[in-house]
Amino acid sequence: MDTSQKFDIPPGVPTCLVPFDKGWDEQFWATISYYELNTRIGEQVKVSSTTITIDGFTDPCINGSKISLGLFPNVNRNATIENTRRHIGNGVKLTYVRSNGALFAQCESDSAIFVQSRNCNYINGFHPTTVVKIANKCSLKIFDMEIFRTLLEDCSRRGFDASFDLQKMTFIRMSFVKGWGAEYQRQDVTSTPCWIEIHLHAPLMWLDRVLFTMSPTPRPISSIS
User: Fold this and answer.
1) Average pLDDT over residues 50-59
2) Which whole-number Å values give the CA distances from 202 to 14, 23, 32, 35, 191, in the listed order?
3) Residue 222: which residues within 8 A CB-CB, separation 6 or more?
4) What pLDDT, in 10s, does the model give residues 116-160?
5) For the CA atoms of 131, 86, 71, 176, what is the dihedral angle to 10 degrees?
6) Exposed e or buried b for every residue in 167-198, given b needs 16+ CB within 10 A?
7) Using CA atoms, how far apart are residues 64 and 66, in angstroms rounded to an integer?
8) pLDDT tens, 202-225?
């Protein structure tokens, strides 16, 4: 695993030395949260391993390469959630390429996984909120750092609001077994029984640096301000 490479601010993006949150560590490339419906279950998990499996079992893995959702307790779990958890099985394998910041997801479950990644949707020419279905043994690049680099450079020239909107690209939502969105009964991810949210550290760090150099756009005074 190559951990020697560090990400630099994209060329053309304004930079300055910023005292970041000391809780952020380059060792960890993401923070993963597990949800059931609209409730976060358990503690957030910081991820350092370049390959991590998120499954439905109860393996108390201590080497950081697996998150077993079967270990997450919830006294308010209903029958739909219980049934969904039983079908997660081998879940999903995430592979992070440190040298270029790409992230891939491969479905290892017999049931599909469903992904909403604005970065991935941009790459494929989809609507920003599109939810993509990944079937068993299929994989998809769900984040491309070079695309984010290009967009950030462009948005930094267009001002604070355009740049701030890119924060929606720094997290990815993924549900197990049950999908959501325009083609499904469930319209929002918080209506799915079991899902995760992946917060990517490096692009958020870049974005924070850029926003720190900018002033927010003044909002016009109105009757609802």
Assistant:
1) 95
2) 17, 13, 14, 23, 29
3) none
4) 999 999 999 999 999 999 999 999 999 999 999 999 999 988 889
5) 0
6) eebbbbbbbbbbbbbeeeebeebeebbbbbbb
7) 6
8) 999 999 988 988 877 655 544 443
Taking the C-alpha atoms of residue 97 and residue 20, their distance in angstroms, rounded to an integer, is 24
Q: Note every long-range contact of 204-208, with CB atoms under 8 Å and residues 24 or more positions apart, other chains counting.
A: 204/167, 204/170, 205/7, 205/20, 205/24, 206/7, 206/9, 206/10, 206/13, 206/148, 206/149, 206/152, 207/152, 207/163, 207/166, 207/167, 207/170, 208/18, 208/20
In this structure, the strands spanning 39-47 and 30-36 are antiparallel
Query: Strand 139-143 and strand 171-176: pairing?
Result: unpaired
Return mean pLDDT, the chain: 86
CA torsion sign for 76, 174, 45, 152 is negative
The 92-97 sheet, strands edge to edge: 66-68, 51-55, 92-97, 102-107, 139-143
43 contacts 67 by C-beta, under 8 angstroms:
no
* Residue indicated by tokens 């370049």: 50
pLDDT > 70 in the chain, percent: 84
Closest-CA residue to 115 (of 166, 189, 42, 62): 189
Distance CA 50, CA 184 (A): 32
Write the DSSP symbol of residue 115: E
Amino acid letter for position 128: P
